[in-house]
Amino acid sequence: MEEDIIRAGFREIKRKSEVFGDDAGAFGIGDGWLVVTNDMLVESTDVVASMSQEDIGLRVVTMNASDLAAMGARPLYFAFSVGLKESDERSARKLFRGIQLGLEMYGMSLISADTNQSDELIIDGIAVGMAKSLMLRKNARPGELVCVTGDLGKPLSALLIELKGMEADEGLRKKLYEKFLRPVARIEEGITLADFSRCAIDISDGMVKELKAISEASSAGIVIREEELPISDEVREFCRINGLDAYLIAMNSGEEYELIFTIDRDKISSLEIEFTVIGEVVEEKGVWIKKGGKTERAKDFSWRHFSKELF
Ligand SMILES: [Mg+2]
């Protein structure tokens, strides 16, 4: 529903740049690309009780930096507009300290900022970076391998503890929450990848949703092999305790900020970053999961919806 309304709205805007609707927009400058993205954080939908003001400030930089990483760009500048509740004005220093942490982490400088008063905390970040070549959602080709950085499932596991009171002892909880509260954008990976891959996306809404975006933009299909998914021992343990399917958690966990990319088989041995091959691009459109000899359509849950409605 929400997506249909947004799509209809954007049809009204006729003047769009040549790269629009990917992780970030871009335009050619010199022999490279200037890459620009904006991503908004809203308290009522994006913030949970465990997040500190510093976590929130850092997060808004991370989610924007991650969109640059997904395009293969090096982050350079950051801008933001923040709406603060009156009651939050005292804690604004902590929020800004979190933003500073993010700027240091990703090598960016603040270029502009605006503050206002609001009924709830809202921060809209804008990030600018440069890329030598772009990785775009539309560039996946049948025969290529599908890969992902890092491991999957911790943020959704932590969210299920946070919102649904699911079980985990203190040690396990700590390990799951680490990535949930302070995810890290894969900047160096993205820059390296741009020399090898033509198609990437970052995981903000959950892997199935991101794969669908690639599948639709590329008019191709993606088959994921369940046994290849990089799921940590912690997520497996959490799923065992709470009677959940670990692969469903891994495939729908959002705000991971890992990069999914496609790549030619013969390029893979020269790629010097850590990643896992999880599947391949095929002709038949859609996102599929190969599980125990059967291939079925991957189930797509919005991860926040997933955690609130299904458990
Ligand atoms: Mg993105």
From TrEMBL:
The record's section on InterPro entries has:
PurM-like_C_sf (IPR036676), PurM-like_N (IPR016188), PurM-like_N_sf (IPR036921), ThiL-like (IPR006283)
Residue intervals passing through the bilayer: none
Q: Name one GO molecular function term.
A: thiamine-phosphate kinase activity
UniProt-annotated binding residues for Mg(2+) 3: 23, 67, 202
Q: In which pathway does it act?
A: Cofactor biosynthesis; thiamine diphosphate biosynthesis; thiamine diphosphate from thiamine phosphate: step 1/1
The record lists Mg(2+) 4 as bound by 23, 37, 67
EC numbers, comma separated: 2.7.4.16
PANTHER family (alphabetical): THIAMINE-MONOPHOSPHATE KINASE
Additional observations: Reaction mechanism of ThiL seems to utilize a direct, inline transfer of the gamma-phosphate of ATP to TMP rather than a phosphorylated enzyme intermediate.
Query: Do you know which NCBIfam families this protein is assigned to?
Result: PRK05731.2-2, thiL
Q: What is this protein called?
A: Thiamine-monophosphate kinase
Species in which this protein is naturally found: Geoglobus acetivorans
User: Gene encoding this chain?
Assistant: thiL
